[in-house]
Every structure is written in structure tokens, then in C-alpha cells.
Design a protein that fits this description.
single chain, two-stranded antiparallel ribbon, globular
């Protein structure tokens, strides 16, 4: 079984995000980038599938700050091949990234049985990467997956998805299929730094130059700014009747009644 995992780096929102002096982009020198959490789960699910059923795992990413560390970590976990798409673009839309990944995958000339990606990201809450790629490849897409159960004959797979409220759904799809992982069957494994350093010595990151970006794909940012700090919330106290009267007055004063 040939499995492809797509990963990306996102801003670590725990750290303070600073704006570049130009006012048009995030100061990447002051920012910290981390692997998108559910992409980490996608890598883990791919490695688990390889350990259970055998196969070959390729991890692919578009160039970004600190992406090399993430790729070598994936190799230390068990990925067989790690690849980086070089673009030279600092900012791009999710749709542009999907088109670049589509082109890169086509240029690899490899028929993958499964393409796994994180179901969403902090800069892609709607989770457009998976469905966009599925549309371009004309393949089925199943999102919010928590378990992938391939057919032993390698012609189809069952995908279990989480619906919320303790409910799950099971889908069966022919292969190849693109799956958006929301959680791996097991928590992503910890990899000691020494194992990552060994991967850096034994593995090589392949590079694929991206094609020219399609027209209209560049994002022209006019200005970035932090949210303006305003007054805090007003706490309304008193009896239920007094609170109701105050709310009615607020609504009237703001023309909402």
C-alpha cells in the first residue's frame, strides 16, 4: 500500500505574533512555526497503517519556516520518503496551495492508494485542502476520520468518522481515496531528538520545484493589524426584573427594539 501524507506548518498562536515593519505580513523572524496538530495525527495514522499492513509512506509539504524539522521528524517516526515543494511564495491562499500540491503529486508519477491530510488547520478552519485536491484528482473525499481500515486485497477501505456527541459513521470507498484525519487511532508518538538527528544523517529531503502560480493566486495584503482593545463587558446585576429592564433599555438605546 502506498500512502501519501500532506503536512503544513502553522503559526504557534501560544507565542505573541508580531507584525512586520511593512505592516503587510507577520514577522516570521519573531514568530514560531509548528506542525499543524491534525497533520501530525495524519502522519501517525499513516505509520500505524504501515506497521499493520505494510507499505510505503511518503510525506509531502510546501516549503515553509521550520518545515525541514517536521519532515525529518516524520522520517524518524517511520516515513520512507520526505519531499518539499519549493515555491518562493511567502503568502498564498489555501486554494493556491491545493493547486501546487496537485501539480507536485502529478509530477511524482506515483499512484498512491491513500492520501491523508489533517482535516483542518488554524489558517484553514473550513478544511479546504482535502476536498480541493479530491475535486482536482476526481477522487472521493472523506473527512473527520478517526480510523482507516483498508481491505486486505487493497481495493477498498473502510473509514470511520466522528460525528460528535459520541456518534460515529462508517464509510467504504474504493481506492484511491483522500481522507481528512481528525485524530489518529493512537496519540502521535514521541520521537527522541537523537532519533531525529539520525534521520537527518540517513534521510534526504527531496525537493520539487513548484510550477508558476496560476493567475490570481497571489494574495495582496493591504494591511495587518492587531485587534483594537476596547472596553470590557458590562455586568448587569440586580433582580431578574431589574436585569430585564436594563436589557430592554440597552436594546432601545441601540435601536434594536
Amino acid at each position: 500500500m502506498k500512502i501519501l501524507v500532506l503536512i503544513k506548518m502553522v503559526l504557534d498562536t501560544v507565542e505573541e505574533i508580531k507584525i512586520d515593519p511593512s505592516g503587510k505580513k507577520v514577522d516570521t523572524d519573531a514568530a514560531r512555526f509548528i506542525l499543524n496538530d491534525v497533520d501530525n495525527h495524519a502522519v501517525e495514522e499513516a505509520i500505524l497503517l504501515k506497521e499493520k499492513y505494510g507499505g510505503h509512506v511518503t510525506v509531502l509539504a510546501v516549503d515553509a519556516p521550520e518545515i525541514d524539522d517536521a519532515l525529518f521528524t516524520a522520517a524518524a517516526k517511520g516515513a520512507d520518503r520526505i519531499i518539499k515543494v519549493t515555491t518562493g511564495m511567502e503568502q498564498m491562499s489555501t486554494q493556491t496551495m491545493a493547486k501546487l500540491l496537485h501539480s507536485a503529486i502529478q509530477n511524482m508519477n506515483t499512484q498512491f492508494d491513500l492520501i491523508l491530510t489533517g482535516v483542518q488547520a488554524s489558517d484553514d478552519i473550513d478544511g479546504e485542502i482535502g476536498p480541493s485536491l479530491a475535486a482536482q484528482f476526481n477522487l472521493p473525499y472523506i473527512g473527520m476520520a478517526v480510523k482507516v481500515l483498508p481491505d486486505p486485497q487493497g481495493r477498498s477501505t473502510e473509514v470511520v468518522t466522528e460525528l460528535g456527541g459520541g456518534l460515529y459513521a462508517s464509510y467504504r470507498s474504493s481506492l484511491p481515496v483522500i481522507v481528512g484525519i481528525s485524530a489518529a487511532e493512537k496519540p502521535p508518538r514521541y520521537v527522541p531528538i537523537m532519533k531525529v538527528r539520525m534521520a537527518m544523517k540517513s534521510k534526504k529531503i527531496e525537493t520539487i520545484p513548484a510550477p508558476a502560480p496560476p493567475p490570481g493566486s497571489k494574495i495582496d495584503v493591504l494591511k495587518l493589524y492587531k485587534p483594537v482593545v476596547t472596553g470590557g463587558a458590562a455586568m448587569i446585576t440586580g433582580t431578574p426584573e431589574q436585569i430585564a429592564d436594563n436589557l430592554v433599555k440597552i436594546f432601545r438605546d441601540r435601536g434594536l427594539s
